[in-house]
Fold this sequence. Notes:
By secondary structure, the chain is an alpha/beta fold. The chain folds into 3 domains: about 5-190, Methylglyoxal synthase-like domain (Rossmann fold); about 205-350, AICAR transformylase, duplication domain (Cytidine Deaminase, domain 2, 3-Layer(aba) Sandwich), CATH 3.40.140.20; about 385-500, Cytidine Deaminase, domain 2, CATH 3.40.140. It has helices spanning about 15-25, 30-40, 50, 65-75, 80-90, 105-110, 115-120, 125-135, 150-155, 165-190, 245-255, 285-295, 310-315, 330-340, 390-405, 430-445, 465-470, 485-495, and strands spanning about 5-10, 25-30, 45, 95-100, 140-145, 205-210, 220-225, 235-240, 265-270, 275-280, 300-305, 320-325, 345-350, 360-365, 365-370, 385, 415, 420-425, 455, 475-480, 500. α16 (about 430-445) runs parallel beside α17.
Amino acid sequence: MPTALLSVSDKTGVVDFARGLTKLGWDLISTGGTAKALRAEGLNVRDVSEVTHFPEMLDGRVKTLHPAVHGALLARRDLPEHMKALAEHNIAPIDLVAVNLYPFEETAARRDAKPEDVIEQIDIGGPSMLRSAAKNYASVTVIVDPADYGRVLASLEAEDEDLDLRRLLAEKAFARTAAYDAAIAHWFAGERSEIFPDRIAIPLERETTLRYGENPGQQAAFYVEHHKDGIAALEKKGGKELSFNNLLDLEGALFATDPFVGETCCAIVKHTSPCGLATGATALDAYKKALACDPVSAFGSVISFTVPLDDETAEAVSSLFVECIVAPKISAGALEILGRKKNLRVLEGQARWREEALDYKRVRGGFLAQERIARDGRREDWRVVTKRQPTDTEVKDLQFAWGAVGSVKSNAIVLARDGATIGIGAGQMSRVDAAFLSVHKARLAGHDTRGSVMGSDAFFPFRDGVEQAAEAGVSAIVQPGGSVRDEEVIQAANEFNIAMIFTGMRQFRH
């Protein structure tokens, strides 16, 4: 009689699975709560202690860590000496293991969880059984995901010796235990306030495969952290599936509006960098101001709102070809309006970073890890370095410009007025070119640059950037400072009666 050992924390589907095994003539072994759940449904189950001849101990910490379990899993059926060893010790082979693990990740994610409670959710016996069974996949079926119960039963019912299925299930088991251990290591590092431990393992699971990557012909997939924070937490309300480039632009749009949560803000993003960003009295007002920055580039964009999307705003947005829209809430009327655009992806919800999350960038053979930049536009350590003090109106616009420029690809310059970008110079190899481009784009869109303010993500290495601003009639500049030529730059600002603020913090976005 084939034997299955069932020991699951998540009991979804386990009763039906056990019932299916019983109908096929399988003997069932189980532990603790799983055995209780199966017996409550009238199923005949042996306790694991009947196999080990040893009671559970230490409040259940030790129950399956025994040669009678692991010998039964690890013995190679094709090696006579292995089978002889089992017989000598009266150990019957175990042919299937279904185990899912204590909910460590869920417990650790709770802000009110005490360290001792988190530690008790570190499963020891479960990963051990999964690894033993997976190592011996040629003879043992291992199940870590309840979603696989059905296809395993179907294979058994068909008497199909599906080695490839068992190999796949083994792969899933090792991937799960690896991610589980990574989450535990991450928690311990956090308990020690260690930002950059000696080793980092990032537990990710595939959310979906994608049609292609940045270009057709490149295969791609979307992987997320176990708790599905961030973009994976958004609910898709309509439109096609998200593409690789949609996801990149969606991150860019959310990143652009991050400094303005709590305000009414709209970001219009193309190729991960804003082509328009604005705050306003209403969502519609913010959208119109953002669109006015560069209406040509907004074609095929991704749009993020910090406030609920109403019917009137949805009607305005629907007149533009847009790839994707995201907002914390979307009215029923707005959903109906946007739903007329069958290809428009509509996403609802919050996509916040976890507080302790690091920012990763890929390089060949490794990753760079850094703390996420603090993009606060209202810092107390700003200082005016010019003779002229900025006016209250200019300070307000400089605060907006500083919040906006950090989401633009470097070298980055923005021109802003009345809480909106009017010109953006992004991704240039020299800062004076970025300044020139911001003015050029503003004038192309019909904006008067006189009296606007300028934000720079890094210092001006030469006075030519200030001269470019003066030629455009810019009245005030916000920048980090820190150049060896700061005095020359300040002198240029004084010559043109431009107020200048140093923030003391750079905002590169490579």
